[in-house]
Amino acid sequence: MIKRIDNFLTSDQARWPKRQPFDEQLLKIALIALIMGTLLLMIDGLSTGFDFVQMLSLMLPPILWEHITFMGDTLVVLTLALLFAFRYPHLLLALLLTAIIGTLITHGIKPWLATPRPPGILEPGTFQLIGSSISKKSMPSGHTLTAFAAAGLLTRLTADRALQYLILIAACFVGWSRVAVGVHWPADVLMGAAGGLISAWAGLKLCDRWQHRFRGWGYLTLLGIHGLCAIALLGYNGGMPHTGLFSLLTALICLGFSFYQLNLRGFAPKIHLFRR
Q1: CATH number, domain at 112?
Q2: pLDDT of 194-205, one tens digit each?
Q3: Which domain holds residue 70?
């Protein structure tokens, strides 16, 4: 079976997309986000723009913001990666490398800065708070970093420039949602976006260099890890009161799709549900 997977990983069907000019755009956009975040901090500290973004957020219902912000949860992203893991198997390697870099950025900066979140400063009832209240370690926004890291990787899978920007715009909504649910400042979101894009750029570079060392055992191990993430997603709501059904359906769809693909490609014993 391992030899079959090795052959699959080196086939044209599973070829990792080549480097694209848009890869360098990720760094440029990251620099813009970093500069904008720094300017916000210089204007009036952490709270700069918070009230304005929260006011704009009232255009959409809270339950929608719950689901948008849930899309930036690491467990959700790792589960959804299963939908791409059979057409672009090397994406799992790129995602692993990106996750390591992003984790170093997030957990290296958060404890050092230890900036308070809106619930840690603002009086209850003076702002919109959706879901669980978190009061510490705001910068950078981990959900935003995760969303932009995943979006940055996905831009490699298409050469359509318009689609690449649409993917990044989708990540912007996840970042916006972190302010909308009341647990991050706008500067946190911009710094998170910068960190995510830098992580994605570095992950793509390392994957390009090491893709030929990616073999069957590594692929199966990563598939197993992502499968466990999907199982963990069952019944998980990320601190949001209305995302349980979404997480359940997402997990079941991704697990079912993965089982179908493993069975189809002969990577797992075939199971016939109906026999003559």
Answers
A1: 1.20.144
A2: 999 999 999 999
A3: 22-262
